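fold-stage: in
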Amino acid sequence: MASIRKEILIDARPGDVWDALRDFGAVHERLARGFVTDTQLDGNERIVTFDDGTEAREHLVGVDDEARRLAYAIVESPRGIVHYNGSAQVLPDGESGTRFVWIIDVLPDDFAGFIDGRMERGAQAIKRTLESRPALDRS
């Protein structure tokens, strides 16, 4: 199984970043604007639409407020992914910054390069979104 890890340094308070990450139904507004264009909640799942029009159904596996960690799994994808488990964790970095750790495990291994590229684009969108004040303020 391929495991891809991204660490993103974000110029925002960890509590604010966690609040945005934890908002499972607003990833397109508060977490990865532009990379994710829409999110629709369906019970404990969300249907995420990406900037290329691809949709994925993601199941919320768990939320750990103390550790500031969220885990999810893709349960339906048009690309032929057999297994996809993701997690993201918010850690303090310095006095007021955040280290955002994002890990995805995927099968088949052939998808590793594709997922890595998507995560790079997603990481850029996460940083850009979270460093913009309006993304952290819930309207």
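fold-stage: in (second)
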Amino acid sequence: MFSDLAVLMFSCVLINNILLISTWQLPVPGTSRRWKPPRMAMAVVFVLVLAGIITWLVELYVLVPFDLKYLRTMAFILVIAALVQFVKCF
């Protein structure tokens, strides 16, 4: 039982981690001529953390009270797009 849990955790953290995949492989070649993985990693972590917090607040205070739960995906996309543009300025 413990070995199965350990294999699952290792797989999720190091192999199937979308954050590591997107940080080290996808954005770096397409955004810059120079390879700057630490800056890109910080930007991806910043966007994902803030997107989660802001989307949760939008859902809690806007979508649920006004019964607009079907707009969750659009709200998440808009928040991520706004944060990416914010990070792009720096």
